[in-house]
Amino acid sequence: MFDVDTYLTKLGYSGPRAATLETLRDLHKRHLMAIPFDNSLNADAERGFDVLLEVDIDDDATFRAVVEGGRGGVCYELNGLFRRLLQELGFDVKILAGAVIQVNGEFGPELEHIFSCVEIDGEVWLADVGLAGPSYLEPLRVSDEIQEQYGCQYRLVEEDGYRVLQRRSRGAEWSNSYRFKLQYREITDWKQLVPDIAEFPLEQVLIGTRIHSRAFDNGQMVLIGKRYLRVEDGKEEIKVLARPAVFREVVSQILTPGV
C-alpha cells in the first residue's frame, strides 16, 4: 500500500513536508540517488512499444515493487510514484509528455516520455526522476535562462512550437535531451501513442537495450548496453565495458544505492 512515511524513509528524507521549492529540490535529487532507472523488465524487444502504453500504473503494486521491493523502474513508474508523493504532500502537479532524442539524432514519438511539472509561487518547475539521463538532478525552472547544476548547464529553447531541453557538460557543446509542449496531459492521452508509433522504427529507440542509471551527490552514472557514461562535477567520462567482471561491477554500483 502506498505510504508517504515509507517513501520518505526510502529517500532518506526527514525534513519539512511543506510544498515549497526547497522541499521539491531535496526530494527530486534524493529520488534520483535512491531509486535507479532500470528497464530490465521492459527491455524485451518482442514487446516493442507495449511498455510505453502502461503509463496508468497501479500505485500500490508499483510502490511494493520499487519502494519496498528495491527494484528500479522506468519513466512511467518512477515519475508516476513521484507524482503521487508530491500530490500527497500538497504540491500542484501536472503531467507532461516528451519526445526523447533518439540514436539517429531525431526526436521520438511525442508521447514517448511521461514526466511532471510543479507550479510554485507562480513559477513552473520541471520534475523528472524517470529519465535515464544524463539529466538534471534538481527541478528546472521553465524559463529562458541558462541554469547550472553540479557543473552542467541546462536551457530550454523554442523550436517548431516545442520547448527543447538542452544540456551542456564542461567543455562540450549543447546537446538535445527531449522536447515537449507545456500542455498539461491526462493519462488517457497515451491511447494516442498507438497510431503515433505505428511506423516508427523500433531500433531507433533502443528497444531491447538494457539501460541503467542512478545519480550520486554531484553527478550521475548511465549505462546503455555496455557504454558507460559517468558525469561528476560536470566532467564526463565515457567507457565501453568490454570485460564482463567490470560490467557486472558497474551494474551493481548503479542498481544498489550505497555501493
From TrEMBL:
Keywords: Transferase. GO terms for molecular function: acetyltransferase activity. It comes from the Bacteria. Pfam families: Acetyltransf_2. Belongs to the arylamine N-acetyltransferase family. This is Arylamine N-acetyltransferase. It comes from Streptomyces parvus.
